[in-house]
Design a protein that fits this description.
Oligomer: single chain
Radius of gyration: 26 Å
Largest sheet: 8 strands, mixed
Shape: globular
Distance between the termini: 81 Å
Amino acid sequence: MSRGQAVATLAVLVGLAFAKTIAAQQASRSIGRVVDLAGRPVAGAEVVLLSRPIPRDRDAGAPDRRTVKTNARGMWQTAIEKDRRYTVWAHWQGAGQGAASRFAEGVLAGEFVELREAPGTGPIEVQVDGIELWGGPEALRLRALVGGENLDHVELARLGDAWRLPPLPLSSGATIEILHAAGPFAGEVLWRGSIRRNQQRARFEIPAPREFEIEVTDDKGQPVAGVAMRWHICNYWYTASPALPFGDRFRSLWPVVGRTDAAGKATVRLPVEPAENEVWFLADKAGYTMSLDGFDDGHPFAGGKVDLAKKYETGTPIKVTLKAFTPFPIVLNADPLAPVAADWLFLNCRVSIEHERGGSGTQLQVVAPIVDGRAQLPSPLPVGTEIEIAEFLLADTMRQRLAQKHGFVPRRVWRVPVPEDLIDKGPSALPDPMASRVLRVTGGNGRPAARAVVRLLDSASNREATVRTDRLGRVLVPGGREQRVGVLCEQGIGIATVVAEDSDPLEIVLEPLERLVVEVKDEDGDPVADLPLFVTLQSAAVEDHDLGWFAEKLVGLLPRRVTDAAGRTELAVPPVSCMFQFRLARRIIDGKTCDFEPAATRRGASEPTDPVHRITVGPGR
């Protein structure tokens, strides 16, 4: 038998063994119930369960989406894949306007999930001004962002010249994307708007079109045809889930707005505000390095360099130079017998422009297919791009090896420290998942901390990552490097430093949280209901050495709470001496801009404190 035949035979045997293991695990179910604000069951609610290969990207592979209706007792159940993690929510119509539940995140097969109604989630009629300048309502379609860990959108229904936003699990507002419904850019985003919750009607405006001329040549001065011109509309926060660090919660919009003709020219129409002095274009064609061009603060820039000596004049062509580049593969594993990665490589990048006064940057998300353990970007990223996040999907054979080593199948998305040379040349290898360690998180009662959010900080790269534990409180953390680990969930708080010499498995036993009741009243002493609150921690005031650097980041994982009819809500806070800062998630109350008074409260673990923290909402300063 030749070496090639032996490799093929081994691959088939390993694949068959893993297929049997996965098949045995997939026959599982998700069970739960839906209740309203009073805890009563909701019959006929539609429950949505969504899991994506790359949770933050809508285009990286086919999602697993399940929908099921609740019965007369508000109960539901459906088959789901056991090794996937789901975002789950419900919506329903009723005698009134209908409503939606809050999100349940990181849901695994075999768990019981209760979905409770979120206040202020009824339908909203949306009016968009300025649409007649873009072809009228029939030329556009609207969709609302559904901001769970698994990113999703829901289409809005047409109501003549307006649209209807269905009940969605949104806390304070909704992001609406307006897309071209037909034509050469059908499906591309034209504009985006924001509307507030707790209203039945909302409206926003699409700016009038402005035209920009673009000329693209190569580095020899020859025109380049077929270049996709992308325009940066905005970045927006798409989820409040604590399972993602703050910097990971943003989605960037770079829709295609034009393509160059045979002469390398394109005319694009953009909904740009008249006073807007910043327009960024990204030129993209396979075989050429991407280029950032446009104008910033009224000054033109080319290739990411701002010319402060010039001012952009309306009608002046934006000149783009593309440099030919042979795409290089990004090697994700060197061992052909043990492929590490499969399907997709997700990169969260920061593209930047620079000038004498400094510079600025913005996010760009890129997904590259993986073939035979190699990912390839047909268009290399712009010069000066920083890659902040690199994630890929583990190959089935690698997941099976990890399952054999650790005793459970790990989550499929694997995050790696970003190599410095990922843009200039393909790295020969990335950190080996087989060096990973098992971390067990246990509550003070000895029970596993299921679905707890674990935050990791790599000591060498200073990069952060977050992962969720499984039903038995287990999670894999990178091995061979020192990691600082912090956990904060309903079961408690725990902090540890993981080094290579530690025994395996590792374990963190959580300390219980303290319960703090927050009571909010207005200046007249009346309770303020349905007010979202969240708490941050002033790190300079932290006195407990064992929390150290991690205290502020962990408190950022605390879930946001909403006050009840009595203006009260309960917060779980770490038992530490520090300064907690309570902030309004909504500063407009009854049409007035408001602030807290007092703004902060002192809490000490060893100090006797009133279990109720009273806050007065007064006029904004």
